[in-house]
Amino acid sequence: MLRVGPGLAADFIFCPVVRSFSLQYLCLETMDSCDTPESTPRQRASSRLKDYFIGATPLQKRLESVRRQTSFVPTPPRRKIPQCSQLQEDVDPQKVAFLLHKQWTLYSLTPLYKFSYTNLKEYSKLLGAFIAAEKQKGLAVEVGEDFNIKVIFSALLGMKGTQRDPEAFLVQILSKSQLPSENREGKVLWTGWFCCIFGDSLLETVSEDFTCLPLFLANGAETNTAMIGTWFQKTFDCYFSPLAINAYNLSWMAAMWTACKMDHYMATTEFLWSVPCSPQRLDISYAIHPEDAKALWDSVHKTPGEVTQEEVDLFMDCLYSHFHRHFKIHLSATRLVRVSTSVASAHTDGKIKILCHKYLIGVLAYLTELAIFQIE
Amino acid sequence: MSSQKRVKNSQSQGKPSQSSNSYQTNLSAWKVKEDLSDSKSISKHGQNNPVEDYEHADDKAEDALQIAVRYFEKGPTKTSRSKDKTLEKHLKTVENVAWKNGLAPEGIDVLLNVALSGKFGSAVSTQILKCMIPATLISEDSVVKAVSWLCVGRCSGNTKVLFYRWLVAMFDFIDHKEQINLLYGFFFASLQDDALGMQPHLQALLSLYKFFAPALISVSLPVRRKIYFKNSENLWKTALLAVRQRNQRPSPEPLKLMLGPANARPVKRKWNSHSVIPVLNSSSCSKECGKKGMSLSDYLSSNGSFPLEQLKSFPQLLQNIHCLELPSQMGAVLNNSLLLHYINCVKDESVLLRLYHWLSQTLQEECIWYKVDNYEHGKEFTNFLDTIIRAECFLQEGFYSCEAFMYKSLPLWDGLCCRSQFLQLVSWIPFSSFSEVKPLLFDHLAQLFFTSTIYFKCSVLQSLKELLQNWLLCLSVDIHVKPVMNSPLETTLGGSMNSVSELIRYVGWLSTTAMRLESNSTFLLHFILDFYEKVCDVYISYNLPLVVLFPPGIFYSALLSLDSSILNQLCYIMHRYRTNLTAAKKNELVQKTKSEFNFSNKTYQEFNHYLTAMVGCLWTSKPFQKGLYIDPEVLEKAGVAQYKSSLNLVYHPALLSYAASFLLQEWPEERTVNLSSIRGKKWNWYLDYLFSEGFQGLKLFIRSSIHRSSVP
C-alpha cells in the first residue's frame, strides 16, 4: 500500500484523475489530546467536541443526526468492555482454535422450534439425506453411508454467556475420500455454528418449545449455507437473515475492541472508509499502531469497565479530526465499512474474523445483541 | 392452439423433406385421437421455428410415431406373418422419437398401458418402458392406470421392478401427485408381499422410507448398505438431462409446473424460496422422530394425526381439530383459509410465536424500500402484502408482526411504494395505547400526510377510519365477553376509551390542518365527514361510552360548504350525535348513580353550540348570534347588509340552485324567480321538495332537532 505523508493531502483532493486510492497512514506521533496530560478526560472531551462541531456546517450536523436516527439501534447508554469469562474456560480449546482466524458470514436466526440436543445424531443423518437429495434433484437418492459427504452435529459446550443461555452447537460438512486408504474424515467443506451469548432479552420472550440461538456463523460456499439453512428453516420453522453491521455498530466495535487489554498485539488497528462515487468507489484505509489506538482510547475513556456512547463518539471524532488536520478530508462524511483490531475484524457486509481467544465471548455477546435486535 | 397447428401443417404440406436433422419437437402437440382436446398438451408452436423444413421432418416422424402408437394400442395381429418385423419397426420408431425428443403425455399414456398389460410379451414391455421419456410431463392418470395393471398380474416381476424404477426416476415429471399419494399403501404392500422387496432398488426405496418414517415399513431390511441408485446406472439419466435442457428453453412459467418449485430457484436469490410464503407441508422430521411403534395399518387408516394435505373442508377441520398436524413452517397458513380458522381459535402460544417470527423476518427481508437496487421484486412484495391483508381481513384482526414492521419501515417509506397495501396495514394495527403508538407511527405518517397530495391525504383518512372501526369492533366484542377489560395494554375500559378518543382527536387535528392546506377542498371534506360518521355513532353502534365531537374547523367548513351533499352529510352527523347523546343522557338518568363514563357537560354544551349555529343559519335566519360580531359597515361594503337570511335553507349557497329549481318546477308560469316567496306553506313544500331530491340527512336533522311549529 502507498504510504502518504501529511504534506501530500492537498494534492489528491484536487486531483481529478485519481479514481481509487488506498491510503495507509501510520499514526506515529502522539495525538493532540495526549499533549495536555494535566487536563482531565472530561474537560478534554467537551472541548474536543466543541472544536469538532464549530467547523461543521449545519448540513453536516443534519447528516450526522439523520444517520444516527436511521440506524435503528436502540442506544443503550453503555456496554461492558469484553472480559474473559469463567464459562469460556470449559470450552474445548481445540474447538475454539477451530473457530478463530476464520472468516464467518453472520446471520440472525429466529428461535428454533422443537429443537432437541438429544437428537443431534438424528439431525446429522437427516441433514445428510437432505443435502444428497438436493444435490441430485430429480434423481433417486442414495441412502445412509453412501453419500460422499458426512454431516456432523456437535455441541460447543461452555460457549455461553450465562447459565441460562442455550448450548451452542456446530455443524460440519466433511467430504469423504473415495479411497479407503486415505484419511477417513476427509476435508471440511462447510462449517456453521449457532450460539447465544447473553441472550436474556430474547430468552424471556419465548416459551420452552423454542431454542434461542439468534447468532449463526457460516464458513463455506454460499450454496451450501443456503441448502443447510433451508433444511433448518423447514425442520425447525426458523428464519435466517443476513446480518449486516452498519457503520454505527462498527464504530462501537472499534471502541470496545480497542479497549480490550492485550498482552501482545497481533495486528494493526485499521479502519476502512468508503466514499460512494462512480464509476468506482473510493476507499480510504487508515491504519494506526494498536498501542497508539489504545492510548487514544485511554484518553477518552472514563468509566471503568464500560464503554459509553459518548466515549465511542469521542473516540471516532478524535480519529476524524486528526485525519482532517493532515489530509483535509472529513471522514465523518464517508462511510465506515471495516474495522480490524487485534481482537477481531468486522466488515459491514456481515463478515467477521475473530483473532483473540480471550475475548471470543465478548465479541460474540455484541454480535448476539445485534442479531437479537434484528429479529425483534 | 390446435387451429394454429393445423394452419402450420397445411403450409408445410407439399414441400420436399430435405433434412432429417431436427432440433425441435412438435410431439408435445401430437394427438392420439383427432377429437382429443389438446388443452393439456403444451404446444411449442409459440416459439419461433425459422426453418420450416425441420418442422416438416418432424411432422413426418410424428406421423410414423402415430402409426406406431396406434399399432401398439390395437395389439398384435396374430395372423400376420410379418408380425415381428412390423413390431420391430414400430418399436424402433418409438425409441428414436423418445430418445431424441421425448414423448407427449398422451403417447406415454398409451404405451405405458401397453407395456404393463404385457400383451406383447415381457421383452417388448421392457423395451417400451426403457423409452418412456417424457417430452414435458407425465399425466397422473397414466401412472394410476399403470398401477392398476400391476394388480391384474399380467406382467412379469422384471417388468414390475422396471416400472417402479421408472416411477422413481420420473417422479418429478408427474403433473399431479394427489392420486399417487393415495397409492402408497398399495406400493408398500406390493413391495413387501410380492417378494419384490428383495430387488435392490426396491429395498433401497423401502429403506429410504424406513429412514424417514420408521413406523411405515414393517419388513426387515439388510443392514449392509449398497449403492442402490447409482447415477451412472440410471437408465434414463441422459434422457432426463435432455428433457431438462429442452424444458429450460421455454418461458420459466411451465418449467415451474414441471420440475417443482425448488428447481426454478433463481440464482443468487433467496434460499429456499420460489415464493415468499412457504409451501404447506406437514412432514416434520422432528416430530416423526418421537413416534415409533405405529403399525402400517394405523398409518394408512390415519388413526393418528390428520395430515394437512388432506384438509379440504370446514367440517373436516372441525372433526380433526384435536389431532391436526401443524405445518412444518407456520407461515404456510397465510395461504390456507381453513388453517387461518385454526390459528384464530388456537390458544397455543408457540403457534402464534412461530407465525410472528416468520412474518416479522419475511417482511423485513422482502421490504423493497430497504433495498437499494431490488425494485424488480416489487411485484412480489406487493403480492405478499396483499396476502397478509387478505388474512387480516379474514381474521378481522391485525398481526403484531405487521405493526412492528411498520415501526421500522414507516420512517423510510416514501409514501408511494405499495401505498394501498401499506395504508391497509395501518388500518389493521391492533388496538393499543394511542399515546404509545403515536411517536412510532402516527407522527411519521403525519409528516407524509402533510407533504403529500390531496389523494394521499384522503387515502390516509380512509384508512384511519377503518382503523377506528377495527378498534371499536375489537373493544365492543371485548366489553361484552368480559365486563372488565383485561387487555395487557389498557387495564380499564376508561383507559381504552381514552386511547380511542385520542385517536379521534388526532384525526381531527390532521383534518383541520389538511383543510387549510388544501383550501377547504370539498373532496377532502367528504373523507373527513366519512370519518365522523363513524365517530358520531360510537355510543349506539358499538355500545361504548364515548362521544367525541368534531373540531370547529371541520364543523364550520361543512356548514358553509358550497356543496349540497356535504351539508346533507353534516345534517346526518348532527342527527346521529343528537341520538347518541340523548341515549347516553337517558342511561345516566336511569342508572342515577354517577358512573365513570358520564359525559361531561362540556360535550353537551359543545353539541348545543353547534346545534344553535346550524339552526340559526338554516332555519331561523338568525346566524351566529352568540360570540360573533361583524361591523355592519363591513357587511354593507361587502354588499351583504341583509346577511341574516343568506344562510337559510333557501339562500344557502349549497341550496340556492335547489330553491330556484323548486320555484321553476312548481310555478313554471312565473316570469321571475322570487326566492323570498318561499315561506309559510311554500316553505313546507320546499322542504318536501328537498327531501325528494335526496336530502335524507337534512330530513332526519329537521325531524329530530326542530319543532315544526316554529316555521318562519
Automatic annotation (TrEMBL), chain A:
Q: Where in the cell is it found?
A: Chromosome, Centromere; Nucleus
Arranged from A to Z, the UniProt key words for this protein are: Centromere, Chromosome, Nucleus
* Record organism: Equus caballus
InterPro entries recorded for this chain? CENP-L
Q: Which gene encodes it?
A: CENPL
This chain's protein is named Centromere protein L
Similarity field? Belongs to the CENP-L/IML3 family.
- Membrane spanning residue stretches: none
* GO annotations of cellular component type: inner kinetochore; nucleus
From TrEMBL, chain B:
Biased composition, class Polar residues, residue ranges: 9-28
**Which InterPro entries is this protein grouped with?**
CENP-I (IPR012485)
Question: Where is it localised?
Answer: Chromosome, Centromere; Nucleus
Question: Where the protein is mainly located, per its record?
Answer: nucleus
Give the protein's recorded name: Centromere protein I
Quick check: keyword Nucleus in the entry? yes
Q: Which organism is it from?
A: Equus caballus (Horse)
Q: Which domain of life is it from?
A: Eukaryota
